[in-house]
Specification:
Helix 4 packs antiparallel against helix 9. It contains 11 helices and 10 strands. A 5-stranded mixed beta sheet has the order 3-2-1-4-5. It has a 5-stranded mixed beta sheet with strand order 8-7-6-9-10, sandwiched between helices. Helix 10 links the parallel strand 9 and strand 10. The model has no long low-confidence stretch (mean pLDDT about 95). About 40% of the residues lie in helices and about 20% in strands.
């Protein structure tokens, strides 16, 4: 297209289940979008390959090709980059962009939600992560990965559902339609669940979350109980974000809207709708880098 290098920006929001990319020009005009698979940085080479694939889809939608990569400044907001080692891995990859700015998916979500103003976000997707920025300083709440964190997330909901279904199978909990449906996926065999769980990634657990939501809409007591517990976990994170000094919290992520009915009543007055999404936040991250604007520390 022959555009100057400072006139095109691509934002990437990468999580444990999906990756989204969006291209805008310097005036904010949308040029193209793409969507791909898991892009949590902790997935390593597979994540970076998925990011580039998704970016190419966005370029194609904009009528651009690989030759235009060098005219595009990129901002990546990626899950799994809270740790220095994982950030270094992404930044150490060869990339085709004019420049590359990297931060966490939570930071990109905050930038999109508040446009750089004080506030907090809570991501509720495959994983969960809270971030508050108050007075130019950032505060993390959760987001330390599936092994020790991610409370209230799709992963946590799915894992709890399989665990409770096993309880029901062994007579330690009441059978419900949800338990039966989950057990049927494994031929009602713990011997099949064990190797599946040993190899499962967070996204594998998270795929059960929509099933739980569906059964909750039919008043299944197991589904309702699991979602209430997830809501309590998320409510605790929201109240911590508020206590830090963020008067308002924006819920973002694929499970943000459906989990609201299961949140404690006390947290709902603190919730707001985000101004924009994490992909536009990642574009703002790229613009900050190009124009030399400071980030929250």
């Amino acid at each position: 297209m022959g555009l100057p290098a400072d006139q095109l920006f691509i934002g990437v929001d990468g999580g444990g289940t999906s990756c989204r990319a969006r291209i805008r020009d310097a005036g904010g005009r949308l040029l193209g979008e793409g969507r791909g698979g898991p892009a949590n940085a902790r997935l390593g080479d597979a994540a970076f390959a998925e990011i580039l694939k998704t970016c190419r889809l966005a370029l194609a939608a904009a009528g651009l090709g690989d030759a235009d990569f060098g005219h595009i400044h990129a901002g990546f907001g990626l899950a799994g980059t809270a740790q220095a080692e994982d950030r270094a891995f992404i930044l150490g990859q060869r990339h085709p962009f004019a420049s590359l700015a990297l931060d966490t998916d939570a930071y990109a979500a905050w930038l999109g939600a508040f446009g750089g103003k004080d506030g907090a976000i809570l991501i509720v997707g495959t994983g969960s992560c809270g971030l508050a920025v108050v007075g130019g300083k950032r505060f993390n709440v959760g987001g330390w990965g599936a092994d020790i964190s991610d409370e209230g997330s799709g992963m946590a909901i799915g894992r709890a559902t399989i665990r409770r279904a096993l309880w029901a199978l062994e007579g330690m909990a009441k059978h419900t339609s949800l338990a039966d449906a989950v057990l049927a996926e494994f031929d009602r065999s713990p011997e099949k669940i064990v190797p599946w769980a040993a190899a499962a990634k967070p996204a594998d657990y998270a795929r059960f979350a929509p099933i739980v939501l569906d059964f909750a809409s039919r008043a299944d007591p197991l589904a309702t109980s699991i979602l209430r517990e997830a809501g309590d976990d998320l409510g605790r994170m929201i109240m911590r974000l508020v206590a830090i000094g963020a008067a308002k919290v924006a819920l973002v992520g694929g499970l943000a809207a459906p989990i609201v009915p299961f949140l404690p009543d006390a947290v709902r007055p603190h919730l707001i709708q985000p101004e924009a999404d994490a992909v536009d936040g990642a574009i703002l991250l790229a613009r900050q880098t190009v124009f030399g604007e400071a980030r929250a520390g």
